[in-house]
UniProtKB/TrEMBL annotation:
<dbReference type="InterPro" id="IPR003718">
    <property type="entry name" value="OsmC/Ohr_fam"/>
</dbReference>
<dbReference type="InterPro" id="IPR015946">
    <property type="entry name" value="KH_dom-like_a/b"/>
</dbReference>
<dbReference type="InterPro" id="IPR052707">
    <property type="entry name" value="OsmC_Ohr_Peroxiredoxin"/>
</dbReference>
<dbReference type="InterPro" id="IPR036102">
    <property type="entry name" value="OsmC/Ohrsf"/>
</dbReference>
<protein>
    <submittedName>
        <fullName>OsmC family protein</fullName>
    </submittedName>
</protein>
<dbReference type="Pfam" id="PF02566">
    <property type="entry name" value="OsmC"/>
</dbReference>
């Protein structure tokens, strides 16, 4: 079995409330700051949306693999991810992450199979497995759009 490693470089400038950072992933630069709702600049990404992005991107890849393996037709998978944080500002913690997949060019007659595939993707998503024991991580609405 092979061990894998991943690297991200980050830099922060300024104080928590008025600072901003840069995240470098490969050759891509992504700016980030604390969310405005938490007293930050609210510019670029923030750690909370980056966590949702990590879960959602892993979920979308996993769901597309499951759909392909199950021979369920699709052309695209779009995922809307919602997260809830409680206890601001002293004892903050994520309480919920909901993934809402939209499967394009799906066979509507097989809707139950798509719904089961969406749930299996939640169960098999590697990044989701990192968070699912510490919060309510589940599949919300599964939307199918036809050709």
């Amino acid at each position: 079995m092979t061990d894998l490693s991943f690297r991200v470089t980050l830099g922060w400038h300024g104080q928590p409330a008025d600072g901003e950072g840069v995240c470098i992933i490969g050759t891509k630069r992504l700016s980030y700051s604390a969310p405005a709702e938490m007293g930050g600049l609210g510019q670029g990404a923030n750690p909370e949306t980056l966590l949702l992005s990590a879960v959602g991107s892993c979920y979308s890849i996993t769901l597309s693999r499951i759909l392909k393996t199950a021979d369920l037709p699709f052309s695209r998978v779009h995922v809307r991810v919602e997260g809830s944080v409680t206890g601001f500002p002293r004892e903050m913690r994520f309480t919920t992450i909901l993934v809402h997949p939209e499967i394009r060019d799906a066979d509507g007659i097989r809707a139950e199979e798509y719904t089961r595939a969406a749930q299996r993707a939640r169960d098999r998503c590697f990044i989701g497995s990192v968070v699912r024991d510490s919060l309510d991580y589940r599949v919300g609405e599964v939307r199918l759009t036809g050709p």
